[in-house]
Amino acid sequence: MSQPSTPAQSAPRTRGGFEFDDDGDEQDVPLGDVQDDDVYGTPIPQEISGTSAATDQGTFDRSSKSPAQENGMTPVPVQAIDSPADLPSSVVSNTLRPQNLLVSNGVAPSDQTFPADTPSVLPKSRLAHDVVGLLEDRVKDDPRGDTAAWLELIEEYKNRSKEDEVRRTYERYFEVFPQAAEQWCAFLRWEEAADRKWHMEQIFKKVLVSVPSVEVFTVYVNYVRRRNNVQTGDTAAYRNINQTFDFALKFVGTDKDSGNLWQEYISFLKTGAGTVGGTTWQDSQKMDTLREAYARALSVPTSAILPLWKEYEAFEMGINKVNGRKLLAERSPDYMTARGAHTQLQNITRGIDRTTQPRLPPALGYAGDMEYQNQVKLWKEWIEWEKEDPLQLRPENNDAYLDRIIFTYKQALMALQFWPEMWYDAAEFSLANNRDEQGLLFLNQGFASNPESALLAFKLADRLETTTTNDNTNDSGAKNRMKTVRDPYDKVLDALYATIKKTETRMEAEVQRIEKTASSQHNESNGQDQPIAPNIDHTKSALEQQVQTVKDQAKNQSDMLSKIISHVWVALMRASRRIQGKGLPNEKVAGFRAIFNEARKRGHVTPEFYVEAALIEWICYRDPTGSKILERGAKLYPDDAYLPLEYIKHLIQKEDVTNARAVFETTVSRFTTGDNRDKPESVAKTKPLFLFFHDYESKYGELSQVIRLEARMRELFPEDPALLQFSARYQTPGFNPLNAQPVISATQLVPKLVLQPSIEAGPVVDSPMQTVVNHMTNINSPKRALPADDDDDDYRPQKIARGESPFKTTQIRKVPAPLPPVQNRAPPPLPGAIVHLLSILPRAATYTDVRFDPVAMHKLIKEKHLPAPGTIGATRPPLTPQQGTPPAWPPQFTQHPPLMVPPPQGYMSPAAPPPQFGAGTLQHYAFNGSG
Length: 931
Hints:
Layout: E1 13-15, E2 18-20, H1 66-70, H2 131-141, H3 147-159, H4 163-176, H5 181-193, H6 197-207, H7 214-227, H8 235-252, H9 259-270, H10 281-297, H11 305-319, H12 321-348, H13 369-387, H14 398-415, H15 420-432, H16 436-449, H17 454-466, H18 479-485, H19 487-526, H20 533-580, H21 592-602, H22 607-621, H23 625-636, H24 642-653, H25 657-672, H26 680-684, H27 687-700, H28 703-716, H29 722-728, H30 832-840, H31 854-863
Helix pairs in contact: 2-3, 3-4, 5-6, 7-8, 9-10, 11-12, 13-14, 14-15, 15-16, 16-17, 17-19, 18-20, 19-20, 20-21, 20-22, 22-23, 22-24, 23-24, 24-25, 27-28
C-alpha cells in the first residue's frame, strides 16, 4: 500500500556552520519589481532613447591582459569587491558553483538575507606569489582609491623589464590621474634612461598642453637642450632652445616655484652671440633681449627674485652707470611689488601640500578628513589672495590678472582632482570672465574625474541648456536638443547606479567571506572535543552581529546613493518639462512624463521623487495625475512619513479637506498603534504630521478639533510643554503670544547703567607714600607746580606727598610735614576704558585657584627685619649722613643702592637711581633738591 506523499521538507539553512531559522527572512520585493499600474495609463517603456543602461562596472574599471597569462593562470573575471589578497584560502570551496549575481534594479531591501545556496560572488583566489595578479585585482577593484597599487604594479613591470606592460599601465593610470605630474616625469625619465627619444616625444605631445607643472616643463627644456648642441655655434639649435624656453615660461612662468627656470633662461641668453656693452647691432640686440628677460622675471614673485635683481643691477651698472641708475629706478617699483607679494605668498602657501598625486577626500568623521579640509581651505585662501590682485595687474593688463588666477586654479586641481567644488569654482570664474572655452574645459575635466558628482552634472547640463534653443522646424519635439542636454544626467545616473551595484556586490562578497571563515573554523572545531553550548551561542551571536554590521553599512551607503539618484531624476524631469513639456500631442507618453516612467523602471528612487513629480503635474498643469502619483508613492513607501505629509498638503491645496483628514488619521494610526506604539522612532515620525495639522486646524478648523488634537499630542509627546502647544494656535511668522508683552509704564523702560566695579579704598597706613593730598596744595616746593591740562581734570591721579629724605641736611630746604590723611574719602574716578574692562571681567567668585593675600604680604614685609643697606658682605656700618655736613652727591654705596621709588608726577626733582632689590632695610626714599 502506497504511503501518502508528504511535502518535502527543506534542509535547515546554515550560516557559518550554524543553523538559522527562516522566520522573518523573506526578502522584500524591491521597487523595480513592483508591477503597479502606470499612473499615466500606459505601460512603462522598456527602453528610452538617449539613455544608456547602468553598466556592471564602474567608469574607471579596466581589464588586465597579460598578468594572468604571464603567471600561468587562466584569466578570470574579477568582481568589484575587496582585495582578494586579504581573503583566506578557505573562502573558495569546490562544492560551490560560481554563477552570475542577479542584482535587482529596484530599491535595495532594508533587511536582505543571504541563504546558504546563494551563488558565490567571490573571485577565484590567486596564489601568494602571483604579485602582478594581486595588484591588478586591487587596481581593478579601486582604481581611484588604491594609488599605491598602481605604483607598485608599475614598479613590478619595470623590474621584470616588460616595457609594453609598463607603457600600457602608465596609460591606464593617466586615464584615472591625467594631471599627476610627478608620475609623468617618472615616465619620461624611465624612457630617457633607455634613450627612447621617440617615446619621449609622444609623451610630451600629451602632457605639455594639459599639465602646467614646472617639473614637467623642466624635463622638456632639458630634453631639448640635450638634443640641440649650441657649442658648435649652430644658430638653429640656439633658436630652438630659445623658443622652448619661451614656450615653457608662457605656461609655467607665473608659478611661484619657477625661479630656477627663469635663471636658466637668462643664463642661456648670456651665451648667445654678441657682447654685453659692445657697440655692434648684435651686441645691442643681446642687451635688449636680456633687459626684456630681466623685466619679465622681476615682475613674477618667485624665490629667485632677489638674486635676479642683484644680477640685473650688476648688468645695468656694468653697461652705463648713469643710464643704469635711471633704468633701475624705473624697474624698482615692479621689483618691490613682486618681492612683497612673494613674502605674502610664502606665508599663505606655507601649509599647502603641492602634490600632483590626488587622493579621494575622506568621508567626514573618518581618518584624514580634517587634514583634507584644511588643504581645501589653504588652496581657497591662495586663490582669494590672487583675486585681490596684489601685483596690481588688473588696471593695466587684465588678461595677465585672469591668467594668474586660472593658473592657480589649475595648480589646486592637481591636488584636489576629486573635490568637485573646486572644479565648479574654477569653471564659474572662467565663465564669468568671458573665458568660456576654459570654463567648459574645467567642467568636462572635472566631470570626467568625478562621474558621480551631481553638482558638476547639473552645472554642465545647465550650461548646455542655456546655450541651445528649440528648433521646431528641424527638430520636432526638441528631441535632439533634449538628447544633448540630458547627456550629463545620463552619465551621472549610470555612474551612481554602477556604484550602488558595486556596493551591493561588495556587501554580498563580504558576508560570504565572513560566513565561510566561520564555517571553516566551525569544521575545525568539530574534530576536537565537544564544544560547550554557551560558546556555540556566543560564536553564533558574534557571527550574526558581524554580518548585520556589514549589511547596515551597505544599506546606509545605498540609501545615500538612492537619494542622490532621485534628485538627479527630478532635475532631469524639470529640464525635460522646460524643453519638451508634456511632449507632442500625438505621442502617448513623452516629455517629462517619459522621464518619470524611465526612473521608475530603473528603480532606487526615494519618496522625494514622487513628491516632486506630483508637484510638477499640479503646479504647472493643474493635472489630477499628481494625486495619483502621491497615492501610488504612499503605497510603495508605507513606512515613510514625508510623503503622506506632502500628500496632505496637496489635498488641502485642492480643497479636499475630507480626504486630507483621512490620510492623516490613516498614517498616524499606522505609526502609533499596534507594535509601533512601543517604538519611539516610529512615533516620532508622526510629529511633523501633528504639527502641520494642528496649525491647519488652529487657523481654519473648529476649536473642539484643536483641543482633541492637542490632547493626542500630549499623550504621544509628553515632553513637549503644553504652553507651547497652546501658543502655537495663535502664532504667525511675525507674532508669538508668549513674547507679546506690551509696555504699560515708564518704569519698565529704565535704561541699564554701566556696571561699576566695586573698588574699596585700601587701609590707611601711617606712611608718607599713602597720604593723599589735593592737586593745588602748596607744599612749599622750590619749583612751581606744572600747569594742569584742560582735558584731564576729571581723571588726574592724586598726588602723593613724599616723605623726608634720610639724606637731608641743613643746607637743603626742609619740606613741611604732610597734611593729615583724609578719612572716608570716595575713591578717585577711573577712566572709562578701565571701568569697561573691569565690568566685563568675571566675578571674583569664579576664580578657584590660590589667591594672593595683599594684607598678609604687607604684614610679612613690615615685620621682616632686613639688614641695613651695604651690610651684607661688608664690614663697615651703613652710611649715615653727619650733622651739618652735606653728603657727597650722588651718594656712593658699597654694593647696591637702597630701594628707590621715583617721585610722583608734578614734582621737579633730580632723576633717582634705578630701583634695585638688594641688601638693606626695605624703605622708601625720596630725594628733594633745588634742581
